Structure formats: C-alpha cells, structure tokens
Amino acid sequence: MVVSTNTRVESLATSGIHQIPKEYIRPQHELKTITDVFDDENDENAPRLPTIDLSGIRSDDPETRQRCRDELTRAATEWGVMHLVNHGISGDVIDRVKAAGEGFFGQPVEEKEKYANDIASGKRQGYGSKLANNACGQLEWEDYFFHLVYPEEKRDLTIWPTKPEDYIPATAEYAKQLRALATEILTVLSLGLGLDEGRLEKEVGGIDELLLQLKINYYPKCPQPELALGVEAHTDVSALTFILHNMVPGLQLFYDGRWVSAKCVPDSIILHIGDTIEILSNGKYKSILHRGLVNKEKVRISWAVFCEPPKEKIVLKPLPETVSEAEPPLFPPRTFQQHMEHKLFRKDNDDAVDPK
Question: Which residue in 290, 317, 339, 342 is the catalytic one?
C-alpha cells in the first residue's frame, strides 16, 4: 500500500497500514534508543524529574518562600525541566482547554483542513503536520495546531477554531492565567541569579513583547512505535515552555547520559527552561534535550505554550552579572531570529551580532 507523505499522520494511522512509510523511520543510531514508553513509566529505578510545589512561593512565611525558590532554581540548574503542582491555574480552565483541543482533533480531517497552515508561504499558524524542516529530512509522527495566544492584541482570532464553541474562550483564559505564571517563574529564576526580580522578564520582552505561542501536538497510534518518534530530539528555543498532556506518557529527557521518560503527574504542568534563559544565564539554567515517543495503544495529546522574546528587538547574550574571568560567556550575541536560524540551518557563528 503506497501512501503519500503529504497525508496527515492521523489519516495514515487510521488507514489500516501495518508498516509506516520510510520517511518516518528513524536512523539506526536512534532506533537503538527507542523504548516502550509504558515499560519506561513502570521503571521504578529510573531517575525522576523534579516536582515543585509552587504553593510555597506564595506563602506568607519567608523561609517557606525561599525554600520553594531554591527547589525551583535547583531543578532549573540540574534538569532544566520539572513538574509544577499547585501552580495556581484553575483546574476548570485546564479541563476546558483539554476538552477544546480534544474536540478540535476529534473532528474529521476534512474539517481540520479548513485551518491548514502553509509554511512555504510564511503562514505558520494553523493546522499542520510539521512545524519546520529538520536536519535529516525525516518526518515526525504527529499532527498539530499552532497559533499565538498572548498578548491579546497580537492574536489573530480568525484562525482560531470555532468548533468546539468553547475553544476560543477557554484557550484565551488559559493563556491569560499562564502569562501570570510565567512572571512568577521568571521572578524566581531572576532571584536565583542574584538579579532584581523583574530582570529576566524585562530581558525577554516584558509584558508587552513576550509572545505566548500554543502548539497542540496530536500523536496518533503508531503501528510501529519502535521505529518512529513523535518529536525528534531538540531543545526549545523559547524562554520558558509550559506543557499539559492527556496523561499518556511520551516525553523523554536526555539526562545524565541516557533517555529518561517523564512519568505522568496528575494536575501538573511541565515546565521547560528554554535556550533563551540558558543563554541569558550563561548556562547556569539548562535547556534540556528532549523528544517524544509514540505508542500503538493510545493517542497522546499535549498542549505546549512557548514563551518567546521578540524576534529582532532583543540581542540574546549572557547577562553581564553571569560572566566573569572564571566563567566567560558561553554563547555569542544573537537576536532570537538569528538563534532560531542557527539551530534550524546549523549556521556558523558568523551570524552573531556585534556585542557593542
């Protein structure tokens, strides 16, 4: 059975194929590391990424606040990723966001195609099956919906789904609450570097310029999950990334020389430190390499919100306070746009901007 690689992954998954097209098969060195995600989740001996109870940073007790800040900055330093619980975002809003995303992807592919993006013409927002070309030209076992959700005045509601009816109000409210959480996290990370509490937020664009981009990832059942990846190994270019999921495991982190599967923690949001914060902190905070596994038993859905600085207005480089003779700058100055192009096209350092 010949299937066009332009076909949506969902259509492939439901077409009755028993073998995936060769474009989805990972190279040999990766195949050796792909494991059964359900076996991984039951491995009690595997390292576990930290869980941070954020209720502590809102405590009236200074010692409790400081202890929570220390735990969060330690997780950002050692792992670069963590589960956040008691994060302050309404459980009802999270349930609504998940129901809205599941409702959108539960529609026939023909309905979703009305929202199709067109990367070639520069239309990144919308429904698609690949956000960008990877270095090796292979495809990932996922479909997605991608759009800007905050600030409100920069949204384009014409490309937001109108079905289900709660998609727009639920997603808008979630973005608003998540933006407040981003400020709390950036405050803690600033203090952890010995900076004024508002410094990192200012450095990534502040309340007016920091962009929140939502990518709903839809990973259909895969007939050969041992050969494919939902998302290939990468680090996030963002400042911060917040992730919800439908409690189906799949996220893996490259930690201490091995791939570690993130266990599902109820009522949590996963927080990733992105490249932007790693650069500003001169490597103190880690942007961890991660990827997504797929399986043949359950559909996995995740909701990733990338908090990104403006593309051209800010030069990303290690902050002066993080640099010393003993700790020289680890990253050349680049705009966010240049950093993305450097990662995407593997450009050399000659695209860096003059630091003066």
Answer: 290
The predicted-structure confidence for 11-51, as pLDDT tens digits, reads as follows 999 999 999 999 999 999 999 999 999 998 888 888 999 99
Q: Which of 130, 176, 202, 234 is catalytic?
A: 234
The answer to the question of residue 195 being in a domain is yes
Q: Of the listed 236, 245, 272, 317, which one is catalytic?
A: 236
pLDDT at residue 150 greater than cutoff 80:
yes
* Cα 126 to Cα 118: distance, rounded to the nearest angstrom: 8
CA 217 to chain centre: 10
| Residue 293 domain flag | yes
Q: Give the pLDDT confidence score for residue 346 in this predicted structure.
A: 59
Indicate whether 119 belongs to any domain. Answer: yes
Catalytic: 245?
Answer: no
For this structure, is 234 an active site residue? yes
* Residue 348: pLDDT band with limits 50, 70, 90: very low
**What CATH number corresponds to the domain at position 171?**
2.60.120.330
Domain with 130 in it: 47-351
Q: In the annotation, is 196 catalytic? A: no
Residue 7: pLDDT band by 50, 70, 90 thresholds? Answer: confident
In a domain, 7, yes or no: no
Give yes or no for residue 259 having a pLDDT over 80.
yes
Whether this model's pTM surpasses 0.90: yes
d(CA 105, CA 80): 30
Between the two ends of the chain, the Cα-to-Cα distance in Å is 59
Alpha-carbon distance of 242 to 269, in angstroms, equals 6
Q: What is the pLDDT of residue 355?
A: 43
Which one of 87, 98, 147, 215 is the catalytic residue? 215
pLDDT-based confidence at residue 347 (cuts at 50, 70, 90)? very low
Active-site residue 272, yes or no?
no
Q: How many domains does the chain have?
A: 1
Residue 148 sits at the vertex; the CA angle it makes with 146 and 151, to the nearest 5 degrees, is 165
User: How would you classify residue 35: left for phi > 0, otherwise alpha for psi between -120 and 50, otherwise beta?
Assistant: beta
Question: In whole angstroms, what is the distance from residue 119 CA to residue 133 CA?
Answer: 10
